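FAQ

Q: What does a record look like?
A: Structure on top, sequence underneath. For example:
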């Protein structure tokens, strides 16, 4: 999903197996909610120049280079996301001017400067039909992501499958 100078809402999607990148943002500020972004050749999401997407309750895993890359003063807001098992980096800032805000996420390797960052294995299942309209990657029993998210006005009421989220302690990722 190429976003050039645009700000679409991308909601309840599974984006996988793309040749270069699932969501390249060029001077854009999309809102990405309840998406599973997996198995893409390079980045799950790349933000360059001056892109500032809002990424909420997404599962970004298994991408061949980086989950989220930021370049040229790009500053995404990342909340309640699982960013795990991407080949090289979870969140990669290509320059010092890129300053993501990362809150209540499960991030492999952690994220310096983030708040409420969980670094324990989120115990992810396989991409499959878990009910609903799109394939998702479930969090398995005893996952540290269960009930560990922050509830804000922007937290979606349901997950990618349409299952109601907890209003006080939502599960991190696209799957409640």
């Amino acid at each position: 999903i190429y976003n050039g100078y645009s700000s679409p809402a991308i909601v309840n999607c599974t984006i996988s197996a793309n040749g270069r990148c699932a969501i390249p943002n060029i001077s854009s500020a999309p809102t990405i909610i309840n998406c599973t972004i997996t198995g893409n050749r390079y980045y799950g999401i790349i933000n360059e120049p001056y892109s500032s997407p809002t990424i909420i309750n997404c599962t970004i895993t298994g991408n061949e280079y980086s989950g989220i890359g930021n370049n040229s003063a790009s500053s995404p807001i990342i909340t309640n996301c699982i960013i795990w098992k991407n080949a090289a980096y979870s969140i990669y800032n290509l320059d010092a001017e890129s300053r993501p805000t990362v809150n209540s996420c499960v991030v492999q390797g952690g994220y310096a400067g983030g708040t409420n960052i969980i670094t324990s294995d989120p115990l992810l299942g396989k991409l499959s039909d878990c009910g609903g309209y799109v394939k998702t990657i479930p969090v398995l029993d005893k996952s540290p992501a269960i009930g560990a998210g922050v509830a804000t006005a922007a937290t979606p009421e349901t997950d990618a499958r349409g299952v109601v989220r907890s209003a006080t302690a939502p599960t991190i990722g696209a799957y409640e």
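Q: Is there anything notable about this one?
A: The two ends are 24 Å apart (CA to CA).
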